[in-house]
Amino acid sequence: MDTLRPREFDEIAALEQPSIVASMWRYRWLVALIVAIFIGLGLAFQAYVPSAFQATAEMVVEDPRASQLFNVGEIVTGGQNPQRYVADQVEILQSPRVAAQAEKLVTTWASTGSEALGEDWPGWLSDADIAGVSIPQDEFLSSLSISSSRDSNQIEVSFTADTATRARIGANAIVEAYQDVRFEQLEQTANAAVLQIGLQESELEKILEDIQLEIDNLIALDAVRSGLDDEFEDDLATFLALQLRLDALDPTSEAADTVRIQLDDLLQDFQTTAVIDTIEAGNAELQALIAQQDAGIAELAALSGRSNSILIDLELTGTGVTSLSLAPTPTTTTGSGPARILAAAIVLGLAVAAALSYFLASRRRAFGSRTLPELVLNAPLLAEVPDFTLEGIKSSLPVTQAPTSASAEAFRFAAAAVDIRASAAGAKSLMMVSATLASGKTTAAANTAIAAAREGLRVLVIDADFGNQELTSM
What we know:
Layout: H1 6-16, H2 20-26, H3 28-48, E1 53-61, H4 82-93, H5 96-112, H6 114-117, H7 127-130, H8 137-143, E2 144-148, E3 154-161, H9 164-248, H10 254-269, H11 273-317, E4 321-325, H12 338-363, H13 372-377, H14 398-401, H15 406-425, H16 441-454, H17 470-473
Antiparallel strand pairs: 1-3, 1-4, 2-3
Helix pairs in contact: 2-3, 2-12, 3-12, 5-8, 5-9, 9-10, 9-11, 15-16
């Protein structure tokens, strides 16, 4: 055989490395069995694994510390990046502290009742729902699921439980516990800010006391200043009059000497100018102290107002939850329904069956077409013998037992083909072999020999299978 067609190349390649689809078709009954087993396992899982309910609460959070009222002195609590803030709140929701607070709330609700708690009783809860309910901290941590959106400040709080009521209570208890914990944290921050303001107020009051003392001392000096000013004015007028009188007197006269003595005394009095200058400087200092005192009083009033504003802001902003949608009672379970389980079982079964059938097909190669042996062996196909059982033939010798059958006709065709090729090649003998046991060598040899003999050929059959000798027994 000189050339091979492209399709024949593909068929030989398929024989060398079978495809997954061909392998599954070859072992289709095995595939069907494996898929059926997986379907049974899936249904058993659905029947024996208890269903669970999941309740989900939604809330939108904003950083309440973004308010400038919380920025006091060294305590700077300005809001952070919104995405980072939401991520921090998710961590807080998943923390053991919130879980412990949620357990405490559920225990309090179940043991106390709505009448005893009064306004502290949550409006979404009834005494009948909470009766006998207990959710430990470990269950809160293991059954809680928190998710957030990257495009908004929304957080979803989901809680899974064996009953719809416990799922709803668990989800809403986490939300209530989160708000309690957050309010406590923010209250601590606000108290720290108020304490810092109190320290600043104490320091400022001390400074104002010192300023007031300096002002009082300067005011006490004002009385001396007033007397000195009056005396200076009188001496100045006397000095001018004496100077005019001296100009009118004879410089050598005794009266002129007397006037000069008086002028010298006045000049000594004028030395008090330095004292007057000091008093005037003190007057400027007094004005500065008064201005400083006014500024300190205004700052003290501002600090006092800010302290009150922080506490008011804490009450107004609360925990930072700007929108809250409490979890309703779930009506469906979170477990996969029969349709999903069936689909998953089929997919898994097909995957396992595909892997197993491909493994078996790779270990046990088989011809998928009647032309493949001819292509692989580079020898012509003499005949194609059908399955005896498909024709209802129970004997191993259809040539004698069912001479009109398609199987008998196939063996007669094979005998004729062998005769033609043997005559052309001058061959006198034919050997039938196979690679494995029980592949049909004996049946093919016997039926072909009988068909050739019935066509008038001289036939001698030799049973060379010394381990089986089935041809002899036939």
